Amino acid sequence: MHGRPAAPATLNNPTPMSETRGDAIVIRGARQNNLKNLTLELPLNELIVVTGVSGSGKSSLVFDTLYAEGQRRYVETFSPYARQFLDRMDKPQVDAIEGIPPAIAIDQTNPVRTSRSTVGTMTELNDHLKLLFARAAHLHCRGCGKHVARDTPDSIFEALAGHAHAAGDPRLVITFPVPVPKNFAESEVRQLLERQGYTRIHARRDGLLEVVQDRLRFSNAERARVIEALEAALKFGQGRVNIYPLAEGDGGHPSSLVSDPGLTRYSESGVRRLEGAQAPSSNSRLTPHPFPWRYSTDLHCPDCDIHYSDPTPSLFSFNSPVGACETCRGFGRVIGVDYGLVIPDESKTLREGAIRPWLSESYRGWNDDLVKYAKKRGVALDTPWRELAADARQWVIDGEPGWVSWRKSWPGKWYGVGRYFKWLETKAYKMHVRVLLSRYRAYTSCEACGGARLKPDALAWRLGTKDDADAVLTPDQRFLPNGVKFGKDVLARLPGLALHDLVLLPVERSRAFFANLHLPAPMDEAADLLLTDIRARFSYLNEVGLGYLTLDRQSRTLSGGEVQRINLTTALGTSLTNTLFVLDEPSIGLHPRDMGRVIGVMKRLRDAGNSLVVVEHDPQIMLAADRVLDLGPGPGERGGRIVCFGTPD
Ligand SMILES: [Zn+2]
Ligand SMILES: [Zn+2]
Asked: Which residues contact 591 (CB under 8 A, 6 or more apart)?
């Protein structure tokens, strides 16, 4: 480095300052730690590298003086009330600092200890994804996997055109369901309906009347008439309409209340199966299609009768009570009995004491119970645990079915190891019980959400098309949420990815997913902006060599270098300007291959109107700097002076 020396400063005299300019940070008389009364000007909007031997005063100048003052002034812009909650740094030992912008330190300290902080929350990508899911994701029923969307008279009309054509243009009965309230007789409800002009019931099942709105053949009906009928049916049916295609040869007359004693009855399980389906048709003048075409203006799956709530952003956040799994409260893990610790040696038999906690003398009685009941029920006592049948193991752990309580069921029914631990938990106020419990408990993945941290309804929403998803994640690797009623085969056919798929995906593949993502048209401006922002953030992360991380990765498991590079990309993503960024050795832990890209990110921050002061030794980064400040010449007392300050060439 052949910088031009900042001449007078090396003599340790105050630099004769040009008039204080608006485009530089002016430091006068810095004496923090070993700094020798330094006075210098750091031009704004540059990438400045501060270098020197260890202990030469780099950190004293950059962090203890520059950053401390920038932070102190920033905190002072808050109200006195807010200030009491913020960390305030000591005023540095310096005569004056002028022209300093608000400062942000991007260093390697990882202050995070909570498992709620992940790469996704650090990068703010989780926040962006929850907004995008709320706007652009599509819902798939957790019962059947079918797409769930709000129907409108127009969308139903379009769907009917297709269905009616495919079914050979049958006569259609447009009906709406009306429930018969518990304290009403059916006749009373019918009277009310008749007063509104509805005299015909197409079908009834327990507690529900299917009231005829209109009957028509799709090909003969005017669009206006169909739409009008649908609107009226949706209004009286509280957002539901069921349309029955009639088989050819059916009577052309609607079933009227008075003249139709053989009203079609449906089984209690719903309308899926006709009670009289196998009965001779002479019994009934109507042979309706057993599956009506069902539509709903709610987020409601008509086939499974499941209602879904609106996709608000908080539904997609595990840090919100709205979205967080109720069992693990968004942690993804729960503390519970770890049976790997309870039965550490699977070659042991029950008689030998396979159940570890019952091996010690003071808990022997529990094992005696086990042996006694195993004999009664014919559970093998001398077979190693690993060779016991699955139902025998389950018997040992879960106890016997029909267990009610200790008072009612014991003795008489075997309680099981699980209930022993539940009983222990009620005694956990005793120290020795707590110690015992702690030996057999561990964090395990939450069974309710499968570690996804979110409620089942949040995981029913998916983003993108099938091709978008297939390009980055093979169908068999996709997350099957707990509690869905369909299997991996149906999951594989669903379009798009769920939020949990995305947080488990390495950043480089997420970047590819969002780069090619197809969102349903028309896309509003806000979704468009969000997508642009998400794409940029994934690209930045990938650029600084973090493409292997997943958003789900917990912050506390990251290295200092990873934390710093994540924070660097987050700063870039927030579009801050007029800010002073101070960095501590961003080259640490970085593959030389990725160095150029980190430099690129720092230059982009600078070009966005920010100033960067970087403590660094790496020659590549020094060469890329606008200016290099060399402190020294030695460590400690022999340091604290400006050796040279200039451009790196
Ligand atoms: Zn469904
Ligand atoms: Zn959970």
From this structure: 545
Taking the C-alpha atoms of residue 618 and residue 595, their distance in angstroms, rounded to an integer, is 9
CA distance 622 to 344: 56
* Side-chain half-sphere CA neighbours of 364 within 13 A: 3
- What local confidence, expressed as pLDDT, does residue 251 receive? 46
Q: Cβ(257)–Cβ(199) under 8 Å?
A: yes
Task: Let me know the angle formed at the C-alpha of 292 by 290 and 294, rounded to the nearest 5 degrees.
Answer: 150
Model pLDDT, residue 111: 64
Does residue 242 sit in helix, strand or coil?
strand
Q: How far is the CA of 505 from the centre of ligand 1 (A)?
A: 27
- β-strands 306-307, 300-301 pairing: antiparallel
For residue 121, the CA-to-ligand 2 centroid distance in Å is: 18
Closest CA to 583 of 103, 41, 90: 103
- C-alpha 57 to ligand 1 mean position (Å): 66
Report CA(426)–ligand 1 centroid distance (Å): 41
Which of the ligands is closest to the CA of residue 145? 1
Phi, psi angle pair for 519, to nearest 5°: -105, 150
Classify 389 in phi/psi space as left (phi over 0), alpha (psi -120 to 50) or beta: beta
Question: Cα separation of 244 and 203, whole Å?
Answer: 10
Residues contacting residue 217 through CB under 8 Å, at least 6 positions apart: 169, 170, 171, 172
Phi, psi dihedral angles at 193 (to 5 degrees): -65, -40
Ligand closest to Cα of 308 equals 1
What are the tens digits of pLDDT across the range 71-80? 888 877 777 7
Q: How far is CA 533 from the centre of its chain?
A: 18
User: Residue 540 and residue 563: Cα distance in Å, rounded?
Assistant: 14
- Distance between CA atoms of residues 225 and 535, nearest Å: 47
Write out pLDDT tens, residues 36-64. 999 999 999 999 999 999 999 999 999 99
d(CA 619, CA 649): 12
Shortest-distance ligand to the CA of residue 304: 1
Task: Find the length of the chain.
Answer: 649
CA–CA separation, 379 and 517 (whole Å): 56
| Domains (range + CATH), the chain | 7-108+582-646 (3.40.50.300), 150-298 (3.30.190.20), 333-445 (1.10.8.280)
Question: Rounded distance, CA 213 to CA 524, Å?
Answer: 37
Using the mean position of ligand 2's atoms as its centre, give its distance from the Cα of residue 131 in Å: 22
Contact status, residue 61 vs residue 30, Cβ threshold 8 Å = yes
Percent pLDDT > 70 in the chain is: 89
Tokens of 566: 């994540």
